[in-house]
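Quick one:
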Amino acid sequence: MSVPISTSANPVASSAQLRKIVHVDMDAFYASVEQRDDPTLRGKPVVVAWPGKRSVVCAASYEARRFGVRSALPALTAERLCPEATFVKPDFVRYKAVSLAVREIFQRHTDLIEPLSLDEAYLDVTQNKMQLPTATRVAKMIREQIREELNLTASAGVAPNKFLAKIASDWKKPNGLFVIQPHEVQSFLLPLPVGRIPGVGQVTESRMKAVGIATVGDLYTLELSTLESHFGSYGLRLYQLARGIDHNPVVPNRVSKSISAEDTFREDVPLAETELQIRHLAEKVWKSSHGNARAAKTVVLKLKTKEFSSLTRSLTLPAPPTSCDELTGIALALRERVEMGPKQLFRLVGVGLSNFQAAEERASPLFDEEPVEEL
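Output:
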């Protein structure tokens, strides 16, 4: 397939006002903090996970990743893949302290910081406090300060919007910097597999391939009406992203009403076979909740049946969960309140936190220019 690339036709490049966005992602954050603080772990495979046969991996050092160990992998599988790995229990108090130190570095450059979790954030540096001439210079300085002051590494992506910056930060991991200039957007995007689009998971990617969509360029050639017929309201978002369009601003101090994570199974499964996924989602939600300045008192379990019927079970607690194990236990207990018979199959499961309550006042941890001007 050949798609003409025209800078003048690119909505990103032709916009009168372009943002300068930096996405910073700490490299193997939890595992890197453990290696930094314990010299005996440096250069060795490290897996951060709670103890227990049914635990899943929270983070893996790059030494462990060479053996195929990844976040969300069952801990037993990680142990089988990398028997020599050192398993370390997560220490979120320490991780939050480091995250705050990273945030302090960010604040030297801009107040427009949108944390996504403890280890990553978006920064709008269209105007930066240091008066550096380009966003690239800002990203370089931030990475240098993190390395020199915290003895950790971070990868960064620089682009005209959040969508592109997120992709860019992953491009040269670990310890890398990648810049997408406005005039390079189409030539960069079109060859990418659709799975590189944030939010396109395995299920959506499979649906796309079933209708002949393998690359962003394939998406680019389709009319909006065609995409909406295949993907509903998400079709508009895909239409825009294929053209490098993302108008979402960096929102500092975003107040979360809820935090959740969900997954669709490749094949429908009975309720009894959802435990591992619930544990994985609970750990994912727990990690995300630690980038929030408030605490949630309500735990929610969401399920969708094979017939696409949705149901939820929730529990509001006197006080917020104090550990991932507690959150996981509550989510699994909520599953016991689902009475639909052993033959009922489910296609989706989700875990969430809601009913956020204001905590003591404390700083939240992590996580337009002329188009010819360089980022």
